[in-house]
Design goal:
Shape: elongated
Strand order of the largest sheet: 1-2-3-4
Largest sheet: 4 strands, antiparallel
Strand content: 25-35%
Distance between the termini: 49 Å
Radius of gyration: 14 Å
Number of domains: 1
Length: about 90
């Protein structure tokens, strides 16, 4: 029953209307910003994958910029942030 409730709660993110996609992008951005360092920039993938939303998180540091990936579950709304990617050459 909990799975059904979660599916219904996040159903708008799976719809194809522009309003639903905007809601999805806002949910991903908000969840990723909550995990990121203050002042980070979040670039949300417009549609994500079938099961997940994704975003590139860029944080300025004294050495330059750190890039991480934020992954957001469409089923649960839970988000995780990866460790920083290796610096670009």
């Amino acid at each position: 029953m909990l799975s059904l409730a979660a599916a219904l709660l996040f159903a708008p993110a799976l719809a194809s209307t522009e309003e639903a996609w905007e809601t999805f992008r806002t949910q991903v951005q908000d969840a990723c910003l909550a995990l990121a360092e203050p002042g980070s920039r979040v670039e949300v993938s417009p549609f994500g994958s079938e099961s997940y939303g994704g975003a590139l998180v860029v944080t300025k540091t004294a050495e330059g910029e750190e890039r991480s990936i934020c992954i957001w579950s469409k089923a649960t709304g839970a988000a995780e942030l990866t460790a920083p990617l290796p610096p670009e050459d």
